[in-house]
Amino acid sequence: MSKAAKISLGVLLLLLILLPWFANPYTVQVFIQTITYSILTLSFAAALRVGLPRFDVAAWWAVGAYTTALLMKKAGMSFWLTLPIGGLIAVLLGLLVFVVAIPRGMMAFLLFGMVTAMAMQQLFGAIDFFGGWGGTGMVPRVTIGSFKLVHKPELYYLGLGLLIINLAVYRALFNSKIGRAWDAIGSSLKLASSVGVDVVRYRMANVLIGNFFLAIAGSYYVAYTLSAVPLTFSFGNSIFVMMYAVVGGLFNSLSGPLVGALIVTFIPEYLRVAKEYEPIITSGAIILMIIFMPKGIMGLLDERIMPWFIHTKWLGRLFTPKPRARPLA
Q: What's the farthest any 2 CA atoms get from each other in the chain?
């Protein structure tokens, strides 16, 4: 990582840590939502690296949410235990679906995902055990010992911690042998197969890891809403996740989802003063971004803004990496 990248990352992390101290409660609430959508979009973007568009995001998000809500409410279990349990349930259920869908290619995976998302919502809404269409009702608050996470800053820090773990895991994977195999599959399926990459196996690993973090996002969602309602996990929300990825930049699997989730979450929230026009304004803005910025916000940053910084006299020294000395013969 370059010196500029380290400085930028440090400043950003400091701002995120200090945010609840200078932001109003409403802004903190919007950032909590942004954290949730960022975790969802990270799994979507990761799956694109292996050529699999995920339309089942809401389904596994719901699995994590309902697992946490039911275990906390009916079994009196700690939130911290429900986190890995929800993730493992999403992985096991996903395995049953993906073992059929993934070997049949991208289109089969896409269709299976759509059906799974719609079926999961109907399942949670139709069965009384899950609370029906009215939801699970009030869920106990998250506790750390005897301390309850009641206020928004505390819940914000919980989500920020989960997001950082998510980013760290994906960054490690992308820089490993697994990540190189994912990139090979995304570049050329036939070429990857010809050099010995097990396409089905690596695709399976990608989406199952994604399922785990989607369920984590569901558990976190319940931590601050204190309920799980089927309408929240509709197929339409899976489409919104795709929109976050497109706006942020499909070629930036880590930063793109964060930027896209931030922008697409904040624009509708701060346009509520013109509620009747908000969907039109938001949709129009996204269409214009797709037309004029097909690589998203991060693509614009990489192609236009960073070269300008590099060619600037003073800032260029910071953003241009120093040449490494050649070893003596």
A: 75
